[in-house]
């Protein structure tokens, strides 16, 4: 009796999976399904990116109990995952809507949909959103520079400009850190404090070579 019920349940499950697979193959539902998969991919990618970063930064630079650190990691991972999922969902939904209304897809659709999604999802000025926006900004500057050369707006450099860019970036960021530290993003401040300020102080071999800072009262 129990075996027959189990077999019936498996048959229903297989029938459901076949129906879902048939639905996924329907081209008329492609735009809506792409929005849903975009939400899924945004959530997964956000978690993959944020979890290891939060793990390292939390255990390197944050104080507190193990429970507090794990809670901080979970909160940061959730926030990044949620925001990316919401953004991809919004962007792809607006993109599909514009394409449906105008009967075709044009470049401005991408810009407008992303602007609206960026305003709605990433408009809150918090550490997670700030890191994402700064990450994107650096890539945008590189991308626009390459596009300007490709389109002929600026001449092709005779030499690789990257060494000069590297020099200017490091020169500027260390000047800001030394004299205007408050202008830098908190996690960057923490990293640079560890590298450039904490390396100026020690008491004996223990906090010179083994530990960054002594935790005892000696």
From TrEMBL:
Name under which the protein is recorded: PXMP4 protein
Signal peptide: none
InterPro entries for this protein: Pmp4
GO cellular component, one term: peroxisomal membrane
A family per Pfam: Tim17
Highest classification ranks of the organism: Eukaryota, Metazoa, Chordata, Craniata, Vertebrata
